[in-house]
Automatic annotation (TrEMBL):
Region (Uridylyltransferase): 1-326
Enzyme Commission code(s) on record: 2.7.7.59, 3.1.4.-
Protein name as catalogued: Bifunctional uridylyltransferase/uridylyl-removing enzyme
Chain intervals for the UniProt region annotation (Disordered): 305-324
Entries under InterPro entries matching the protein: ACT-like_dom_sf, ACT_dom, HD/PDEase_dom, HD_domain, NT_sf, PII_UdlTrfase/GS_AdlTrfase, UTase/UR
Superkingdom of source: Bacteria
Keywords, in A-Z order: Hydrolase, Magnesium, Multifunctional enzyme, Nucleotidyltransferase, Repeat, Transferase
Sections of the chain in a coiled coil: none
SMART domains: HDc
Family: Belongs to the GlnD family.
SUPFAM superfamilies: ACT-like (SSF55021), HD-domain/PDEase-like (SSF109604), Nucleotidyltransferase (SSF81301), Nucleotidyltransferase substrate binding subunit/domain (SSF81593)
Gene this chain is encoded by: glnD
Summary of the function given for this chain in its UniProt record: Modifies, by uridylylation and deuridylylation, the PII regulatory proteins (GlnB and homologs), in response to the nitrogen status of the cell that GlnD senses through the glutamine level. Under low glutamine levels, catalyzes the conversion of the PII proteins and UTP to PII-UMP and PPi, while under higher glutamine levels, GlnD hydrolyzes PII-UMP to PII and UMP (deuridylylation). Thus, controls uridylylation state and activity of the PII proteins, and plays an important role in the regulation of nitrogen metabolism.
Activity modulation notes: Uridylyltransferase (UTase) activity is inhibited by glutamine, while glutamine activates uridylyl-removing (UR) activity.
């Protein structure tokens, strides 16, 4: 029970009890949102005014609400921002006693209080030194006492703000940018800070301050609604948690959604993201205007000096004409923005919105908000299918790279994107709960097109690549497999945009299979002919394969740092090379006839001779990429990795032993390939297991090969208890509080392999996961041919190619039983 609730219980009943009245108000379901905030502010005003009056204040004193309280924006757990203002004539002891008579009752109720005691001169001086104080005083509101004293302070503070705007506004802009860098962008965060993140309530306060300077004003459309949405979410968060928090944590989102009467947490996040997007766009437009005005003001004295003190260049003494540079038909550049030409007629020119957007992106200039608003209000709708010019302008817009993003955001702010592509509405502001994803679905699609723009030289049809990039996740707004749903939507949209039947089919195929290459390369055995043939059958043509290769890279780079690496790139490139050979009619090599490499043969012979494990480590710098890879610089930085090759006489328990030793040495497994090699040697013939691992250190330096070999020998002879050691480590580092991971899922993959049965394990990534899988497989008396480990964020997908001990495939019933056994062991 909170201190406020205790006070409410102990307080005498009746309308005069502030704590009881406050609790009653906060739990009224009929009154929420702005009415409740206003009612809570009035209730608090009356209580504080009563405290002020009961303290018999001296003349020349006043109690003032500032900041959020001054705006009457009281959430259930908001701080009370109060200023005790006095004219300096009263005795200091009397002022201190008055302050105590107000502050202590607030503290006694457990309410957070931000307080100060100042004269008007002190308040003004503090505001001059502290930008945040100045911002709070802009919202000063009298609660009790000398109203004239407060009015005079407000007038003075506001005049100072306007006079100092050329200095204070850049300072405020820098403060907002620093805060955004620290807290991130609200519209893309899974656990956003409703107040501090970019696009949050702090930015709304900054926009109010800019408007108060009379220097510029924010776009008003939707801004009040967005502000109310964030305030409502914060109210619900305070009520759901009982804490003064502004961070919308994952574990609180369902309760907050229920408090707001929303369907679920995703609906809540979409509303929050929509609000943040509106505020972010208004912020961008406003600061751009502020900088333009300040730049123009600083240029005027220099211009007057150059003109010899004259006020203008014409005979009439007017302002010099503004230069308008043509960019495209009906589109010009003026004063650093893209605007419509005087002769433009949006009502007669349906391609004008796309032409203006493409011109802006190609020139790296912002679209004027006035131009976008006019286009949204008056532009004639495009016919369906689109004319060729419209399609070309869309491709030009998407091919502009980074400059595409702000132009696309401007079109979205006025609803033009949804009008052009109706299915866009389903992905707009849609959250992605996989933490690997940096962006919402719609922004991820745009970012993928941005990444694809740098890869257009690698494909024969850049236009199809860019459109496929924009649409590849369009099915995420629908139930079921988003790739399947997306294929249908992409087919419709490509036809709408004006592509012919062949090109439409290519775009649809790219959307349907946009995950095929990376999932196959990281989760399947590329030496298995069935793997390569299945991909070739799905892709169909070399042109589509080329398109998918570039789309795969663009998609991964736009997902987030964990989704792409030089290792993944090399696997995908290897798969593409093999599939291209099949599509070109080249025969696939027989994996059974493949000879071991010279190093594998050398290690195998040594293992047969000694009867013990033999190791070789090759350090790899993952920053070093293929010089022909145009996206090498785009790949996420990775730590130095190691290729570890182990050869040892074939025996049970090898996979769990090696995986366990690697886990103990804090090595992350990226790939594992297990091969039984039969070698005729001078010592006789024998079967040797050769294991090729790609690993990287979690942190710190890599272990020495000798230490790995020593621990592996101990693990194989049973003197090293790996499960106990891993359990000790897990107990020493308890998990942080958070959402429980979903249970593991093990399935038999439909891989059509003639070499092995394919088992796919999806589980929460954790040290020793592959060790536990190996132990379960050993207990089931199956042989592991190869293991392919793919980790994305907290999720691991481990694919095992297994056979019976005699090398034959598992019958379907045995495979299903094995999957159930694995699921039980991992659960």
């Amino acid at each position: 029970m909170t201190s406020l609730e205790v006070s409410a219980q102990n307080e005498e009943p009746g309308p005069g009890g502030y704590a009881a009245a406050r609790l009653l108000l906060l739990h009224e379901k009929e009154r929420s949102g702005p009415p409740r905030r206003a009612a809570l502010a009035r209730l608090t005003d009356d209580w504080l005014a009563g405290l002020f009056a009961a303290a018999a204040p001296p003349r020349g004193t006043a109690l003032v609400a500032v900041g959020g309280y001054g705006r009457s924006e009281l959430s259930p757990r908001s701080d009370l921002d109060l200023l005790l203002l006095h004219d300096g004539t009263a005795d200091k002891a009397a002022i201190a006693a008055l302050a105590d008579r107000i502050w202590y009752p607030v503290w006694d109720l457990g309410l957070a209080l931000d307080h100060s005691v100042r004269t008007p001169a002190e308040a003004r001086a503090t505001a001059a030194d502290d930008l945040k104080v100045h911002l709070g005083l802009l919202d000063a509101r009298p609660l009790a006492g000398d109203a004239g004293l407060v009015a005079a302070l407000r007038t003075t503070v506001l005049a100072d703000w306007r006079n100092q705007a050329p200095r204070r506004l850049p300072e405020l802009d820098a403060l907002c940018r620093e805060r955004a860098e620290r807290a991130g962008e609200l519209q893309f965060l899974l656990e956003p800070d409703l107040k501090e993140a970019r696009g949050g309530l702090r930015d709304v306060q900054a926009l109010r301050a800019v408007a108060a300077s009379w220097l510029a004003d924010a776009p008003r459309e939707g801004l009040d609604r967005a502000r109310r949405a964030l305030l409502d979410a914060r109210d619900a968060l305070h009520l759901a948690t009982g804490r003064a928090t502004d961070r919308l944590a994952l574990q609180e989102q369902d309760a907050v959604a229920a408090e707001l009467g929303l369907l679920d947490a995703d609906t809540l996040l979409r509303e929050v993201y929509e609000a943040a997007r509106t505020i972010s766009y208004a912020t961008d437009v406003t600061w751009r205007e502020v900088n333009r005005v300040l730049k123009a003001r600083s240029a005027r004295p220099r211009l007057r000096s150059l003109l010899g003190g004259r006020s203008g260049t014409g005979r009439s003494g007017g302002k010099p004409p503004v230069e308008r540079t043509p960019l495209a038909e009906g589109v010009v550049e003026m004063d650093g923005e893209v605007v419509l030409a005087r002769t433009a007629r949006p009502e007669r020119d349906p391609v004008l919105p796309l032409r203006a957007a493409a011109a802006a992106a190609q020139s790296g200039l912002p679209l004027s908000p006035h131009a976008v608003r006019r286009l949204a209000a008056t532009a004639k709708p495009l016919p369906v299918p689109w004319p060729a010019e419209a399609r070309e302008e869309l491709v030009t817009l998407l091919g502009a790279g980074e400059a595409t993003v702000p132009v696309w955001e401007a079109l979205e702010a006025e609803g033009i994107v949804t009008r052009l592509l109706p299915d866009w509405e389903r992905v707009r502001c849609r959250p992605q709960r996989n933490p690997v994803h940096t962006w919402t679905v719609d922004r991820h699609l745009v970012e993928t097109a941005v990444r694809a723009a740098s890869l257009t030289r690698r494909v024969g049809r850049p236009d199809l690549l860019l459109v496929a990039a924009l649409l590849h996740d369009i099915g995420k707004g629908w139930p079921g497999d988003h790739s399947v749903a997306g294929e249908t939507i992409a087919r419709d949209l490509a036809a709408r945009v004006g592509f012919d039947r062949t090109d439409t089919a290519t775009v649809a195929t790219a959307v349907r299979h946009h995950l095929l290459l990376v999932e196959t390369a990281t989760r399947r055995d590329l030496d298995d002919p069935a793997t390569v043939q299945a991909v070739a059958a799905a892709v169909g043509t070399l042109g589509t394969l080329e398109l998918l290769h570039a789309l795969t890279e663009a998609d991964a780079l736009a997902t987030g740092p964990a989704a792409w690496s030089s290792w993944r790139a090399s696997l995908v490139a290897d798969l593409v090379k093999r599939v291209a050979g099949v599509l070109a009619g080249e025969p696939l090599p027989d994996p059974g006839a493949a000879a071991p490499s010279a190093e594998q043969e050398r290690l195998a012979i040594e293992a047969l001779r000694t009867g013990e494990p033999v190791l070789a480590l090759h350090t790899r710098d993952e920053h070093a990429a293929d010089p022909d890879d145009s996206a090498a610089d785009e790949a996420a930085p990775e730590p130095v990795g190691v290729e570890l090759v182990i050869a040892l006489p074939d025996r049970p328990g090898v996979l769990p032993a090696v995986a366990g030793v690697l886990a103990l040495h804090r090595l992350t497994v990226r790939a594992a390939d297990l091969r039984a090699v039969d070698l005729p040697t001078g010592l006789g013939s024998g079967s040797v297991l050769v294991l090729d691992w790609r690993v990287a250190a979690e942190y710190g330096s890599l272990p020495e090969a000798a230490r790995l070999r020593a621990d592996l020998v101990r693990a194989l002879d049973g003197s090293l208890d790996i499960p106990a050691r891993l359990a000790e480590r897990e107990a020493a580092y308890p998990r942080r509080r958070g959402l429980a991971a979903p249970p593991p899922r093990v399935t038999v993959a439909a891989a059509d392999s003639r070499l092995a049965t394919v088992i796919e394990v999806r589980a929460q990534d954790a040290p020793g996961l592959l060790h536990r899988i190996g132990r379960a497989l050993e207990g089931a008396a199956v042989r592991v041919r190869s293991a392919h480990v793919s980790t994305l964020g907290a999720n691991a997908v481990d694919t095992l190619y297994v056979t019976r001990p005699d090398g034959s495939l598992l019958p379907p019933e045995e495979a299903v039983d094995l999957a159930r056994t694995l699921e039980t062991a991992l659960g």
